């Protein structure tokens, strides 16, 4: 069982990384493999709504999104981390996930569906709950169970050292990691017992304007 951790911060080893590293460490202690994937600082284009991915099975924009979607197919769970920018997740992670999830759905790959996901946010002071709500919507539209900690999944601090001093926040990262491990183990046990994913239906779209 493997979990892919996405770092949406432009800082490779900043505050968000510290939180994700605590999660990674705890997952490994629980026998779950994990990897931190860096979005990095290269420009991430937003979705062009060209729908080319429906025809060719990947995004036509040449950046890390296609690489991430291909990588995600081999993982069983996901945790997305972002610093707070103007009471929201970063523009980079938003553009990145918009395209990654649309490519996964439109191309028929469905690499995220029914796999558990969680979001974490890092902030100096405020805006974390708005950012978490924003990131959680990727899970709820994709039939992904959302994993929680014992509090909202956030850490506080202006520097990595300050984040490590957020004792409650760092503890909650460990709660979150153990809950993710528990969910993955339950899913695996269910599969071994013959319990399959829910039956799917053809999606019906209702337009408000007719």
The chain-level mean pLDDT equals 96
Beta-strand fraction estimate? 5-15%
Shape: globular
Number of helices: 7
Low-confidence stretches: none
Main β-sheet, spatial strand arrangement: 2-1-3-4-5
Helix content: 40-55%
How far is it from the N-terminal to the C-terminal residue, by CA?
A: 46 Å
**Largest sheet composition:** 5 strands, parallel
One letter per element, helices H and strands E, the order comes to EHEHHEHEHEHH
Rg over C-alpha atoms, rounded to the nearest angstrom: 17 Å
Number of strands: 5
Structural class: alpha/beta
Keywords, separated by commas or semicolons:
210 residues; single chain; 7 helices; globular; alpha/beta
Please give a structural write-up.
- The chain is of the alpha/beta class and 210 residues long.
- The protein has seven helices and five strands.
- A five-stranded parallel β-sheet has the order 2-1-3-4-5, sandwiched between helices.
- Helix 5 links the parallel strand 4 (117-123) and strand 5 (154-156).
- The N and C termini lie far apart (46 Å).
Short description:
This protein is α/β, with parallel strands linked by helices and 210 residues long. Helices cover 42% and strands 14% of the residues.
